[in-house]
Amino acid sequence: MIKKTRPANQIRPQISSMPRDRSEAAEQLELYRLVAKRQRIQSEIKLIEQRTQLLKQQLEGLNGKIEETESKIQELRRSDSAPTSTTPNTSASKSSTVNNKVPKKEVKKTDDSSTFYFEY
C-alpha cells in the first residue's frame, strides 16, 4: 500500500501564533520532530526500495517470458518455412506430405455479448 505524499516543495511548516522561547525544552521538542521526520523518511525509502526490488523481479520474469515466446515464434517460423519433403514430386509423396501437414485452424472472434429479447 503506497501512500501518496505531496512533493517536498508543497509541505508547509506549521506556524504557531507565538514563537517559543529558545530553551532546552524547545530544543528537545525540535530534536524530537527532526528524529521523527528522519524515521518517517527512512521507512518511506525502505518501502520504495522493497517496491523497486519487487518490480525488478517482475520485470525479469516478463523479460524471460518474452524471450521464451520470441524463441517459440522463431522456431515456428523455421518449421513453417522448412521443406516438408526432399523426394521427387510423385503422387505418393504428395499425398504423404499433405497428410503430414497439420492444417492451420482459423480462429474466428465472436462477440460474447449477445442480447436476447423475450416477449411475455
Structure description:
By secondary structure, the protein is mainly α. The chain has a domain at 22-81. The protein has helices at residues 24-81, 91-100. The protein is elongated and about 90 Å long. Mean pLDDT is 75; it is low at 92-99.
Task: From the structure above, extract its key features.
120 residues, 57% helix, mainly alpha, single chain
Major sheet summary line? none
- Share of helix, binned: 55-70%
Termini gap: 51 Å
Structural class: mainly alpha
Q: Strand tally, please?
A: 0
Number of helices: 2
Question: Which regions are unreliable across 5 or more consecutive residues at pLDDT < 50?
Answer: 92-99
In N-to-C order, the SSE pattern is HH
Which value, in Å, is the CA radius of gyration? 34 Å
Overall pLDDT level: 75
Beta-strand content bin:
under 5%
Shape: elongated
Topology:
Elements: H1 24-81, H2 91-100
Summarize the structure.
This protein is mostly helical.
